[in-house]
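Team,

Forwarding the record for the chain on the shared tracking sheet. I've put the sequence and predicted structure together so nobody has to dig through attachments.
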Amino acid sequence: MTTGQPSQERILLVDDDGSFLEVMAFLLEEEGYEVVRAKNGPEAFERLQSGPFPVMVTDLKMPGLDGLSLLKKAHGLDPNLLVIVTTAFGDMATAVAAMKAGAFDFLPKPCDRDHFKLTVRRALEHARLRREVSELRGGGSSEGKTLVFASQGMSELVAMAERVAAADATVLIQGESGTGKELLARRIHLGSPRRDSPFVAVNCGAIPRDLLESELFGHAKGAFTGATSERKGRFLQADKGTLFLDEISDLPLELQTRLLRVLQEKVIDPVGSERSIALNVRVLAATNQNLESRVQAGQFRQDLFYRLHVVPLFIPPLRERKEDILPLARHFLAKHSGGREWQIPLTTAERLVRLPWPGNVRELENLCQRAALLAEEPILAEELLAAGPAASPEPPRLALDGIDLPAGGVSLVDLERAILVRALEMNDGNQSSTARFLRIPRHILLYRLEKYEIPIKGKA
């Protein structure tokens, strides 16, 4: 869970033994750290949702929600959280289980004070270094971000993804737009033996059709007009790593055939080259379409579908995992306001959970970003949801003003051109929004705009 710039010195300390809690808190505060106390697992989990914390120190044996369960739920919210567990000498088996579940270290109770402080210092230093690496790699992509969830459904999905990460099987991730398919793909990559090699993401629907083949497979010098030098395609860029093909349903049929050969033969043929190049790439694919329906309609190759469908993962829409809405909202509010802790009043929280979220997590983030910009205080008041999905007007309807359908017939070309022009106007010239509105890939929209000589204005 990325939340802006978390304080390196902020530590969550969890123990149901009040005396031990106070002594350990005193030791850490003496070192200059900011310590947040929690007397049990549920209270700690609530604190984590308002985060950020680079390090948590927790007892294992606690009533209600024990330390091992807290660790697993905490990593669901923030896989980067470093957890140090403390346990009595006679419960070493549980400590070992905690280490297997991802704990950073464990300390026997009673703790040696110097050893305790040294372990916390090591954890904070590790968190700082990891954060710096993440920032250096970050950029504007999904890198440096992660999934945030608390629901049972997402927990099971992520557990399945982590199980298949170690294998080299092809994975097909399905789900509506905005659910986090690329984030899940990146999590699989980071959990795999390929984690230190490139993760290359390609949106098959965002690249013009005539450029997509060269973009994926590369080209030789002189392969076509303008090919003044050899170019590495995305497959070669991802060699020894992972290639993520987003919106795989938009891949043209002729390129589906080439992709199938790559998956079967582990070689690529750059455009204009007479030699094949051996390849070592794991392919992850994603789509918001029903590929089986597209296979039946003849729009997607059945043999390629089965090649991609080795391990199918489905990310449920946000409206079906309401337990994730508030943790996500807190995460996005903190992220877009420099790490400030936000209050979400009960009435606002209830409304957030009731909203339909057709744009899923992406829509929720947009709302939180807008609220973080508009709010004078870090309180998510109900009026800040005014532009949210429940308050949105009825979706705009496309009225074809001035066009009649006479009994004698109508020009389909003129009709299609009028629809394109009107759809562009409705979306303020934004090509991506217009393509989504018309339910066609962006490169198809660009092709038709060029075909009908419609001026391309506005944003891409």
